[in-house]
Specification:
disordered N terminus; mainly alpha; 63% helix
């Protein structure tokens, strides 16, 4: 909010006029009602460069920001953010995308995903994000399937007969130099392919 306000008024002028908190919060709490998107208080909109901080917030900030925060809470509940400590849901991403697409200046334009927003693309170009951990991408069902699969594989590998088979395979590879044999085989195959290619282009 501060960033948007100071963008309209020079920083020096804003610093010379301290923000009167009693002006912002002088109305009783029961008078504050969550506005509908795009709905502004009745009356003529004030000049954004000359109005008071409270008027600027009520006419230009809250009609868009507060419904966005309400949508954010609904989405967070849908993503089960209140049920666990970790989640793939990133509130700032959702709010950025929501505010960008609900901007009244873009009302006739098509929906734009977060990573297609121009300023987001520019930001991430110089500051790429680390990969999202798999633990927050998987659902509980997907994670349980992976864990059970790993556990079954581990139990099978612990079986004495399987251990004996793996030792025999390891010894066979060492005695017959299986790695070298495979390497030579593929070298020959690549040479044959190269000869065929040369014949084709001649």
């Amino acid at each position: 909010i501060g960033y948007i306000y100071f963008e309209q008024v020079p920083l020096e002028a804003a610093m010379l006029q301290p923000l009167a908190m009693e002006e912002l919060f002088s109305a009783p709490a029961n008078q504050y009602v969550l506005p509908i998107l795009g709905e502004t208080p009745s009356g003529e909109p004030p000049d954004p460069k000359k109005c008071s901080p409270r008027e600027y917030l009520e006419f230009y900030i809250f009609p868009v920001l507060l419904p966005g925060l309400a949508a954010l809470l609904h989405e967070a509940e849908k993503e089960k953010c209140f049920e666990g400590k970790r989640t793939k849901f990133i509130p700032s991403d959702f709010l950025t995308e929501w505010l960008y697409n609900k901007n009244p200046k873009r009302k006739d334009e098509s929906f734009t995903e977060l990573f297609s927003i121009p300023f987001v693309k520019d930001w991430l170009k110089d500051r790429p994000r680390p990969p999202t951990p798999l633990s927050v991408l998987l659902s509980e069902e997907e994670a349980s399937i992976l864990i059970q699969s790993f556990w079954r594989g581990y139990r099978v590998r612990c079986d004495s007969e399987i251990q004996e088979l793996r030792q025999w395979q390891k010894k066979l590879r060492e005695e017959r130099h299986i790695t070298e044999v495979v390497k030579k085989f593929w070298t020959k195959q690549e040479a044959k392919g190269l000869d065929t290619y040369q014949l084709l282009i001649m």
